[in-house]
Design goal:
GO terms for molecular function: [pyruvate dehydrogenase (acetyl-transferring)]-phosphatase activity. The protein has 492 residues and is an alpha+beta fold. Helices cover 22% and strands 20% of the residues. Strands 2, 3, 4, 5, 14 and 15 form a 6-stranded antiparallel beta sheet that branches. A 5-stranded antiparallel beta sheet has the order 1-19-16-6-7. A hairpin with a 2-residue loop joins strand 4 and strand 5 (253-259).
Length: 492
């Protein structure tokens, strides 16, 4: 097995095993794709431009056309990788939707386009999806995640319409929305078995805010998206998995949900405010080790959850070596036993760290069939689809025209720090006309070109001659000023 793992390590490309390591359900290769490959709809690419976008030699930067109106004058740019995969496996989504009470009839939900009548609570959505081992999961998530979030928010629309009131602890037994008696002053129907019964108030009740309810709604939508991908793999070919970073604007607040290693920062008065954390084998070491400790059968008798500074040799049995397990942030010494000779669950450092020598991210969507190379050991149990959600209250600050949120896949952040991104965006926007509708797209384009670099004899290089990013890069630059005005203007 160890030789198999060594072979797997040598064939890693961009943090994931080759496509062959993803085994489809049944004869998955003969199944049709859930959605045909394309670039984001708002780019409105002709077939010729779509073909041009796949040129690895020139790596053209794609941006929306000048007559394209994204919500909030959002800026966007993308570029394909330098050759690690045939297609750009990143995807993006930028949508305006409306949240309103469910009609009571069964919804067609996410399978249909949103033909809203413009009534309800405005919801803005931005998402970047960094695919690996194929673009299938990223495409599906980019088409459906925002609709899942919208549908779940519709279930609590009656609560969103009354933000001054805390969400009720219980809804009715059948799960239908809480309904106030239409007769003014009429008492609500009492249920003697309900926790709201005064006679049952012998325990403490937690106060739950509307903000935390929205956060939970987004978290559950991510889980629903992951379940939907798994379910639809029986009927469609959905390749690989993806990291997912989503931003939802609802009622004056930005909810940023991240599952993976993409990143979002807010730049306010040239100050950097991180709005996401990256989830990698290193940052989630203890969670992964704890799962391996609790359920050793998931390790297939081939891996050890314990971390050592290096691989252990047979001749070192009985000696003491530095180690750490799921209970430790520091290091200690332990006596080496036969069990410790197994391949470590987490191996490598930094961008080269891998779970089971296979994948370099620990949260995301998809990857349901991902296995350790040439084995029957599934990796999905160690991968979480649950995002971390952070909230930014736009109403608490006065934002200027140069205050923005930058969302990008790891192709941007691998070669550019938060501070460098903030300085580049601030410097660029300061030279632009505040009334130019393309200023944020031009800023995104400039940012992307800085990270891609220029093609030279020794590959794509940055101005300091360091290697540029060879990965797919996707960037949103989202202005934060006048957000209330933007929310009132349909199609702004």
């Amino acid at each position: 097995m160890i030789s198999k793992v060594k072979n797997a390590m040598s064939s890693l490309v961009g943090g994931i095993m080759p496509h062959g390591s993803h085994h489809q359900h049944g004869s998955g290769g003969a199944l049709p794709p859930r959605f045909a490959y394309s670039r984001p709809e708002f780019l409105d690419l002709t077939p010729e431009l779509l073909q041009y976008s796949t040129e690895h030699a020139s790596r053209p930067v794609l941006t929306p056309r000048r007559d394209t109106r994204l919500p909030w004058r959002t800026g966007y740019a993308e570029v394909i990788n330098a050759g690690k995969s045939m297609l750009n496996e990143d995807q993006a989504c930028c949508e305006r939707l409306f949240v309103k009470k469910s009609s009571g009839k069964q919804r067609n939900s996410v399978l249909l386009e949103d033909h809203g009548d413009g009534t309800g609570i405005p919801l803005h959505f931005w998402g970047v999806f960094d695919g690996h081992a194929g673009s299938g999961a990223a495409i599906v998530a980019s088409r459906l995640l925002h609709r899942l979030i919208r549908d779940r928010l519709c279930d609590i629309a009656h609560l969103l319409e009354n933000p001054a009131q805390a969400p009720p602890i219980c809804l009715t037994k059948n799960g239908s929305p809480y309904q106030v008696d239409s007769k003014k002053g009429a008492p609500l129907e009492e249920d003697p078995d309900s926790p709201n019964d005064p006679s049952a108030h012998f325990y403490m009740e937690k106060t739950v805010t509307l903000e935390s309810l929205v956060m939970g709604t987004i978290e559950n939508a991510f889980k629903q998206m992951d379940d939907l991908i798994e379910k639809e793999k029986s009927s469609y070919s959905i390749s690989g998995g993806c990291c997912a970073l989503a931003a939802v604007h609802l009622m004056g607040k930005l909810y940023i949900a991240n599952a993976g290693d993409s990143r979002a920062i807010i730049i306010r008065n040239n100050e950097v405010i991180p709005m996401s954390s990256e989830f990698t084998p290193e940052t989630e070491r203890q969670r992964l080790q704890y799962l391996g400790f609790l359920r050793p059968e998931l390790l297939g008798n081939e891996f050890t959850p314990i971390e050592f500074p290096r691989r252990i040799q047979q001749k070192e049995l009985g000696k003491k070596m530095l180690f750490r397990d799921h209970t430790m942030t520091g290091w200690g010494y332990k006596t080496i036993v036969e069990e410790d000779l197994k391949f470590p669950l987490i191996y490598g450092e930094g961008k080269k760290a891998r779970v089971m020598a296979t994948i370099g991210v620990t949260r995301g969507l998809g990857d349901h069939d991902l296995k350790v190379y040439n084995s029957n050991i599934h990796i999905k149990p160690f991968l979480s689809c649950c995002p971390e959600v952070k909230v930014y209250n736009l109403t608490e600050y006065e934002h200027g025209p140069d205050d923005v949120m930058v969302m990008g896949t790891d192709g941007l952040w691998d070669v550019t720090t938060d501070r460098e991104v903030a300085d580049a965006v601030t410097s660029f926007l300061s030279c632009c006309d505040p009334n130019d509708s393309m200023r944020y797209t031009l800023a995104a384009q400039d940012l992307l070109m800085r990270s891609r670099g220029v093609l030279k004899e020794r590959g794509w290089r940055l101005p300091n001659d360091r290697l540029g990013s060879g990965d797919d890069i996707t960037v949103f630059v989202i202005p934060l000023a006048d957000t209330n005005k933007h929310s009132m203007l349909l199609g702004s």
